[in-house]
Specification:
The chain is of the alpha/beta class. The protein contains nine helices and ten strands. The structure holds nicotinamide-adenine-dinucleotide.
């Protein structure tokens, strides 16, 4: 603020008006429509992308509700993010990606390579290799990025960091994190029978890079979290929100060891109905070694 006042006093021109960002929303599901559309209406939402026309309709309806002055006829709709980038890649400033986890890395990489700024929902990607690629490409292209673990900006998270830094808790030796969400199945769960693809859904575009399977119940919307081809189970869904606070406050880096202490169910194609995992972290920066436990 001091710099701004001084610049004006010397007769320099005022800072340019902030121009709204031209943004596209990729993935118009619960999070995209429920949470991101209202925020994006404060910028210039120029396109929405979803392989399900019912979700595209829901997105435009939501725009009309939260921003009646917006002309929704001017917002372009696409069933595939590759078509969005082909048609509008050079006209966009940023994209927001709120697709199922198996479709985070590809649109994010395409956007980054076009020099677009990218907000990707948590978890950043479906595999660790994808997260490494995304970090490397974002650095190479110098774009602004954010992952959607918004709890990091909460007062509770900042307070936790202050308590730990002020020594109010003393040395922390043990941390327990948990969720009551269940994104998995017990032993012996069978894939539901194939069903006709709902009208308006481009099933192949929804599957994207995942191996082909017939459409069945318990996938779209939202329930895909339990299936390894698309989601990352309870820990992938909630761990990045919950463990993040301890990770930040206690400066946890790489663990020395990770142990699966208990598991309920799970298979090669779906995540377990419950698990307990222990990470062993070494001493770091004046902080004692600690065990972090995850229970779901
Ligand atoms: N930050 C948070 O608090 C928070 C909360 C909920 C969900 N999320 C994250 O947001 C993402 C979406 O979750 P959701 O609950 O909205 O799921 P959802 O299933 O309701 O929505 C996903 C949408 O993406 C669409 N989609 C699928 N393939 C696509 C493609 N190729 N291009 C464009 N759209 C495609 C689907 O048709 C669906 O409408 C997930 O990664 C989830 O982890 C974050």
């Amino acid at each position: 603020m001091g710099g701004f006042v001084a610049a004006r006093a010397y007769g320099q021109s005022a800072p340019a008006e902030k121009k709204p960002l031209r943004v596209a929303l990729i993935g118009c599901g619960l999070q995209g429509v429920g949470v991101h559309i209202p925020a994006l209406c404060q910028e210039r939402l120029v396109a929405v992308v979803d392989p399900d026309t019912r979700r595209l309709d829901a997105a435009l309806k939501r725009v009309r509700e939260v921003s009646p002055a917006t002309d929704t006829a001017a917002i372009r709709t696409f069933g595939d993010y590759r078509r969005l980038f082909d048609a509008m890649g050079r006209e966009l400033d940023a994209v927001l990606i709120a697709t199922p986890n198996h479709q985070h890395a590809l649109p994010a990489l395409l956007a980054i390579r076009l020099g677009l700024h990218v907000y990707v929902e948590k978890p950043l990607a479906h595999t660790i290799e994808e997260t490494r690629q995304l970090v490397a490409e974002a650095r190479r292209h110098g774009v602004v990025t954010q992952m959607g673990n918004q709890g990091q900006s909460s007062e509770g998270s900042r307070l936790l960091c202050e308590y730990v830094a002020a020594g109010a808790l003393g040395q922390v030796h043990t941390v327990h994190c948990w969720t009551d969400r269940c994104n998995g199945f017990p032993d012996g769960y069978a894939r539901p029978p194939a069903r006709p693809v709902p009208q308006g859904l481009d099933w192949k575009a929804w599957l994207g890079p995942a191996p082909y399977r017939d459409y069945h119940d318990g996938l779209h919307p939202h329930d895909w979290h339990s299936w390894r081809d698309f989601g990352n189970g309870s820990i992938g869904n909630m761990g990045c929100h919950i463990i993040n606070h301890a990770y930040w406050a206690l400066k946890l880096g790489k663990p020395d060891a990770v142990e699966l202490e208990a598991v309920n169910g799970g298979s090669g194609e779906y995540w377990p109905a419950g698990a307990s995992i222990r990470w062993e972290f070494p001493a770091r920066d004046g902080l004692a070694p600690l065990n972090l436990y995850w229970h779901d």
